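<instruction>
Derive structure tokens from the sequence
<data>
Labelled lines for chain and fold:
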Amino acid sequence: MLRKEQLPTPVLVVDLEILRHNITHMAEKAKGRSINLRPHMKTHKNKEIAQMQLAAGAVGLTCATISEVEVMADAGVHDLLVAYPMVGDYQLAKAAALARRCKLTLAFDSYTAAAKLDSVAKAAGIKFRVSMIVDTGGSRDGVLPEQAVGLAREMAHFGNLDLVGVMTHEGHLYGCANIREVEEQARISAQKLVTAADELRRAGFNIETVSTGSTPACYADVPVPGITEWRPGTYVFNDVQQNAFFTTESDCALTVKATVVSHPAAERYILDAGSKVLSEAAHPRFGHGVIKGAPEARIVKVNEEHGFVSAPEGAFTIGQQVEVIPVHVCTVVNLSNSFYVVEKDQVVDRWIVHARGLVL
């Protein structure tokens, strides 16, 4: 049996004990609030981890694309949400077929999208469950809270859509300065979504699900009555972005194992992990990833196969192996075919990134 240090580099390594802890911890948080947990699988894109999340109490999973839904449905997941406004013919044809296999909910944020969904569902002889995306501060997709009732009334005549929920994603929390600000913005965002849901109900719409996303919002755990569902994704692995607020190195289940391959100048070292492994994501304080156990080092630049490390003379030696905590773990996973699973530094399995690159 291989030990972790015997793995070739660069490679993704998942610590099974930390992974289990992260999954259990978030499940218990949600249960403590009597909130349904619907994790976003775009972080791990893996069937084994999906089953671990369901076994811990998740009611279903969230996906970003209809191809991801297909992978999860094939893995036996029966309750799936696409948290993205799909309008393409290819995607909607797949959605109509998958809606016969599983409980599928689709997101939308416009009359045009709703009309397209209704037309496809009518042609297929089915009804689509749909959730309205509401912009609660992220300035991405979604209607403003005060526009939700108007859009629902506009689409009320569609006979093949069942409006079952509202949803938001608090991506803007990553721009907060500190935990207090994260908590404040998470509360404001959740309250806006609950208000939109309440107004829709008063207008006669049966809103069952009031769903928030974003791992930092779930870590903040701000009690807002009316929220029924959480959709965190990054929490399974954690990364530099999460460590900026709620977690530490010891909470990061996935690392990139790399080797120092060059020391061409004083205070400059080169890793064999560049943008093809670490992605080009960077954090203003931490660079392109944090090297565990080396707080004085900073990955200042990445080329395709080169990671440029700025560190004091003598910090590393050529041939030394290091572990890098990614800045944004979701994109890092999508760049690799698999990750090695370790338990107490012993390699116990190799898991495939089943939904890698499924952008359709």
Remarks:
- DSSP finds eleven helices and 17 strands in the chain.
- Residues 179-202 form the longest helix (24 residues).
